[in-house]
Amino acid sequence: MGLPVLNYRLMLLLASILSQFATLALGAIGPVATVHIMNQNISPDGFSRSAVLAGATPSTLSFPGPVIIGNKGSTFLLNVVDALTDATMLRTTSIHWHGFFQAGSAWADGPAGVTQCPIAPGHSFLYKFQAKNQAGTFWYHSHHLSQYCDGLRGAMVVYDPADPHRSLYDVDNESTIITLADWYHVPAPSAGLVPTPDATLINGKGRYAGGPTAALAVISVTRNRRYRFRLVSISCDPHYIFSIDGHTMTIIEVDGINVQPLNVDSIEIFAGQRYSFVLNTNRPVANYWVRANPNVGTTGFVGGINSAILRYVGAPNADPVSTQTNTNPMLETNLHPLTNPAAPGLPTATGVDVDINLDILFDFASLKFKVNGVTFNEPSVPVLLQILTGTPPASLLPAGSVYALPLNKNIQISMPGGSTGSPHPIHLHGHAFSVVRSAGSSTYNYANPVQRDVVSIGGAGDNVTIRFRTDNAGPWIMHCHIDWHLVLGLSVVFAEDVPTVATSDPPSEESSKASALTLR
Prior knowledge:
Blueprint: H1 3-25, E1 32-42, E2 49-55, E3 68-71, E4 75-82, E5 95-98, E6 124-130, E7 136-142, E8 153-159, E9 177-183, E10 199-202, E11 218-221, E12 226-233, E13 240-244, E14 249-254, E15 257-264, E16 267-269, E17 274-280, E18 287-294, E19 307-312, E20 354-357, E21 360-363, E22 368-371, H2 383-388, E23 402-405, E24 410-416, E25 425-428, E26 433-437, E27 451-452, E28 454-456, E29 463-469, E30 474-480, H3 483-487, E31 491-496, H4 498-502, H5 509-517
Parallel strand pairs: 1-4, 3-8, 9-12, 11-19, 20-24, 23-31
Antiparallel strand pairs: 1-2, 4-6, 5-7, 7-8, 9-10, 12-17, 13-16, 13-18, 14-15, 14-17, 18-19, 21-22, 24-29, 25-28, 25-30, 26-27, 26-29, 30-31
């Protein structure tokens, strides 16, 4: 190995280490931590309300919750303590670690009614899982009815010291995470079937139409540096058109999967999705608007709504006067995996082992969604426990909503768009999938389609089609990530490799409590 190569690798290693120190200094937690879930009044947009919040300690509750970090291969030990007291919102809870495949740890996936019962107030639950061969941008949120809309959501990052894109950026730490959230002034249980958001919060701050001039999030950058920003939609409903005035973005990661670099000037991001992009701060020292225009609620940017500020070091402490005209939007069909790009199965329409079509409709009589004619009603006994106690696949509840999938088969799911509430962002637990047909396109790409874990299924005329391989035993829920739609039944469960699940051995409550004691 030549000296220049060795020095270059040492520099990369040092940069990676310094990145981790910078993150730790800003208050991130993990991969071993206690997460306290409590109620507290907050006013992120100038309107005060009680919320469901997470914190590393009872005195450090925040919205979004604390960033949780680890490295590729890390084992996460996260002890979630439920100390909720506000009866206007759910007091039980359950947390999903979005994007983690949970190979061998399906019991830690988090969705109530599928892999666990909710955690009761005054109790805790220790989630243990490994980031096996995974790195990138993730997030966590309550997976119990519509609770995350009341505040229980935050970002997660798994760093890769050998990131193949490492030469493309200089800075990657907690300060380069950007979260997009909708915010409601009425608690979720009393907000109605599908309430309209009152505000957009960027990194936990925002303004609402007719409200006070609340402080906006400021993202500080130094000129002539290359920043890896990690954009996370922690939205309950809206999707956003995201852009930064005067700057282009080079996308390098989608939902925890590295992609070939793609230059764009705007990103349409749906609930649950994540993008890493590199931004070169090569513009004049000034303030620039960061924009996240939602598809529902108050749109536009009058008075600083739906906005944050990108502030170069040396710029005045003032609102920007910048403008933006987007001409190069991201198209999902232009995103291609960096490695292993081919979709599972043969490159033909029928080149799979199992082909399932999911027809989604809204039943106005029951005010519920139906998938292939069935509304998902959360069972009182979680699907995982049903399997562990010997329930045969055909008898798993909720009846008609559980699809048994055999081991090591190539699966294709097609989902016609256009139903009430479209476009629906569909999320599959336990897997990333290849999007062989995207919304807005009639082309099937089996060679190098984007791989992700949340996809918009578009509008009328669309037939979004995904593929994945059943190499991860577990009951994996697939649902609309508009949380209000999930509550109204827009979900199915894939019971993957039931024989292996039936012989698995989740930790007992006693052993979980004993392990949790070491974290306190």
